[in-house]
Every structure is written in structure tokens, then in C-alpha cells.
Design goal:
There is one protein chain. The protein is mainly alpha-helical. It has 10 helices and no strands. It is globular and about 60 Å long.
């Protein structure tokens, strides 16, 4: 969609302007958490995750339990495919706010990427407790079962996802892999 592309370009331009204004500020002041956080968010929004990580780490040096920063740092590590670091930060964020579904889902994704079945199972249980009616629960269960090579359970959960309206290529991919 042309309108959405224009809005995305406009947002990127605004974040780049924010970066241009914030970089000199944080360069001259060693501890300015609000500016570091804003700069980290701006870097993330334009895909400069390594620079975002640096800024988020600066915030955490001053405020180690800042939930938003921990969560955004975990996401930045995830985007950089540094999954172990993403897990570490997401666990810290989950310790601050164990009922945060977004953090739990990020943690599950990172565990799946690192083939950590035990971590994935525990996180899936937490997600199910927090949001038992989450429409993505069946597909998450299917992914965890597939990783554990529990193919009958993966088929069952993928079929449940399909019957609940999650007819996506991803769901069919999991179903096909589990039936193979």
C-alpha cells in the first residue's frame, strides 16, 4: 500500500532527525538515561540495533530494573540474532514484570531459536497461564511440540490453530513438517 509506505518513510525520517539531535547530547553527557533511551528507540526504529543496544545498556547502568529498557534491549538483541543475550535480558524483564505477555512471547521465540526445549516449555506454560484464550497459543504449542519431535502433538495443535482461524502459510508449514 502506497499510503502505508509513505507513512513508514515519514516515520523513518523523523527517527533519523531524532538521532541527529540526540547524538550530540549523549556524546557530551555520560549519564543521561532519558536521552539514551530515546536514542536507543530511534536507532531501533531505523534498524541500527547494535547502536540501540549500546544506548539501552547505558540506561541500565543507571537504572538496572527499567522494564521498558530491558524489554527493548531484549528485542534489539533478538533482531541482531544474539538469542542468548535476548534471553538474558528478557528473563530480567520477566523478573520485573512476570505478567508481561509481550516479554514472555519474546522469551519463547528466543528459546525456540536456540533449541532450548526446556525453556520453551516453561515459557509456554507461563503464556498459557497469563493468556489461556490467546489465539496464538495453539500455534505456539505446535512449534514447541515440533521442536521436541512430538509430532502427533504438533499435528494436533496445528490443526487446532487452523480450526481457530489461523490459516497462514506458517501454520500449514508446521503441520506439513509434523506430518512428514
Amino acid at each position: 500500500n502506497s499510503i502505508e509506505a509513505d507513512k513508514a518513510d515519514e516515520a523513518k525520517t523523523l527517527y533519523e532527525k531524532a538521532i541527529a539531535e540526540l547524538e550530540p547530547v549523549v556524546a557530551n553527557v555520560t549519564q543521561l538515561p532519558a536521552a539514551n533511551y530515546s536514542l536507543g528507540i530511534s536507532y531501533s526504529k531505523v534498524g541500527k540495533f547494535d547502536q540501540a543496544i549500546d544506548q539501552f545498556q547505558r540506561v541500565l547502568a543507571v537504572d538496572p530494573n527499567n522494564l521498558s529498557t530491558l524489554q527493548n534491549l531484549a528485542v534489539a538483541y533478538f533482531q541482531e540474532q544474539q538469542y542468548d543475550a535476548a534471553i538474558e535480558q528478557a528473563k530480567k524483564a520477566a523478573a520485573v514484570d512476570p505478567k508481561n505477555l509481550t516479554i514472555q512471547k519474546l522469551l519463547l521465540d528466543a528459546y525456540l531459536r536456540t533449541n532450548n526445549g526446556e525453556g520453551a516449555q516453561a515459557t509456554l506454560a507461563a503464556i498459557e497461564t497469563l493468556s489461556p484464550n490467546d489465539p496464538a497459543l495453539s500455534i505456539n504449542k505446535a512449534m514447541v511440540a515440533l521442536q521436541a519431535r512430538n509430532y502427533p502433538e504438533a499435528v494436533k495443535q496445528a490443526e487446532a490453530a487452523l480450526s481457530s482461524g489461523q490459516e497462514t502459510g506458517f501454520t500449514y508449514n508446521i503441520l506439513g513438517r509434523a506430518q512428514a
